[in-house]
Amino acid sequence: MALTINEDCINCDVCVPECPNEAIAAGPDTFVIDAAKCTECVGYFDEPQCADVCPVDAILPLAA
Hints:
It is a single chain. The protein is mainly beta and 64 residues long. It has a single domain (1-64), classed as 2-Layer Sandwich (Alpha-Beta Plaits), CATH 3.30.70.20. It is built from 1 helix and 4 strands; from the N terminus they run E-E-E-H-E. The protein has one helix at residues 49-53; strands spanning 3-5, 24-26, 31-33, 59-61. Strand 2 (24-26) and strand 3 form a beta hairpin. The longest helix is centred in the last third of the chain and has 5 residues, at 49-53. It is globular, with a radius of gyration of 10 Å. The model has no long low-confidence stretch (mean pLDDT 95).
């Protein structure tokens, strides 16, 4: 269970401080989510906080 940030990301960085697992970092083109650290906020919140604050809906479930 993890999320990913797609190419719609505008590099606004509002998602970074929202992540309780510190799983989001700057990547070469957009921000990226470390799938090994991402829990989709289970155990912290009812909804993934990064996706809730993303202004362009660029944060989606990781494709299997």
